[in-house]
Amino acid sequence: MNNIYIYMFIMAAVTYLIRMLPLALIKKKITNKFFKSFLYYVPFVTLAVMTFPAILDATENVWSALAAFVVSMIIAYAGGGLPIVAGIACVVVFVVERFV
Amino acid sequence: MNNFTLFKRGFKNGIPIFLGYLAVSFTFGIAARNSGLSSLQAILISATNLTSAGQFAALGVIAASSGYIEMALTQLVVNLRYCLMSSSLSQRFDPKMKSHHRYLISFGVTDEIFGVSSAYERENVPPAYCYGLIAAAFPGWVLGTALGCLSGDILPASVLSALGVALYGMFIAIIVPPTKNNKVLLGVVVISMLLSLVFAVTPILKEISSGFRVIILTLVIASAAAYFFPIKDEEEAQYE
């Protein structure tokens, strides 16, 4: 049996280093147009990829999740702020699951 | 805006993260107890890692009594996407920002905190705003783990199910509004979701773990967008 606390130390250290190194090493603003643009697009791609279709597995059934997805997209597009969209998504799931 | 106001704004925007984390880490707490960890160990893991997929993966490594190197590699692979996120975030901090802020904020680069920080309306994200986000998100992650450990049925399934979608609602609230006035971003978001779906359902491609799917698609789509639609200098301010 390996030592659980050594496992925990390794986990924390590796995870922290992955997050910390880029922030510690890239202090200047990048001027290269391609890399600058690439980093600008990164959040949109990563968050979109993480959201869909994963959201469909996030709840008790796929219909409540699909309803939350569609409603969130519409409210976000209409200009609803972050807490509002997140809150309404939860309410939609809760309500739909009472009926489906 | 002074630091306290920025902190409060971050904290407020972090409340959906708090709720979402409560639900996700609750299931981590249950899983950790089921794989034989003590409550204290599970809470310690959540407090020192603040990440979902990596912690779940670690439970498998611990349960199998695999080697320490395997643990390090698993964490590296599962969490490699944070490297891309931190690199992107590096361009959103003031180059003059003090190093200790960089070391502290690094700890909090989760999918959600990264997402909300990126949606900050100016090019330079102030550290106080990030600390506000972390101050809301971190307790949610640790508290949820504790609750999951102590009792698997404090939160009913219906509530967990509803809270579980909060994080996705948040992602949508981050990526959709800027697409309204920017056709390229709209295309980037739609193509990202479609290709993600393709990766999730196509034989062979669906064997790729979700962590690597994020990395592969980010490298491909963000590179293509950067190559064909490099941002113009006046576009830099357009963060919201």
Counted by DSSP, the helix tally of chain A is 4
From the spread of the alpha carbons, the general shape of chain B counts as globular
Rg measurement of chain A, Å? 20 Å
Structural class by SSE content of chain B: mainly alpha
Helix content of chain A: over 70%
Major beta sheet summary of chain B: none
Oligomer: heterodimer
What does this protein structure show overall?
The complex is a heterodimer of chains A (100) and B (240). Chain A has 100 residues and is mostly helical. Chain A has helices at residues 4-25, 33-51, 62-77, 82-99. Chain A has a domain at 31-99. Chain A is 75% helix and 0% strand. In chain A, helix 3 (62-77) packs antiparallel against helix 4 (82-99). Chain B has 12 helices and no strands. The longest helix of chain B has 32 residues, at 3-34. Chain B is globular. Chain B is mainly alpha-helical and 240 residues long. Chain B has helices at residues 3-34, 39-49, 53-63, 68-79, 81-90, 99-107, 111-118, 127-150, 157-164, 166-175, 183-201, 210-228. Chain B has 2 domains: 3-174, no CATH class; 176-240, no CATH class. The relative contact order of chain B is 0.16. The chains are: A mainly alpha (100), B mainly alpha (240).
In terms of topology, how is this protein built?
The complex is a heterodimer of chains A (100) and B (240).
Chain A (H helix, E strand, L loop, with lengths): L3 H22 L7 H19 L10 H16 L4 H18 L1
Chain B lengths: L2 H32 L4 H11 L3 H11 L4 H12 L1 H10 L8 H9 L3 H8 L8 H24 L6 H8 L1 H10 L7 H19 L8 H19 L12
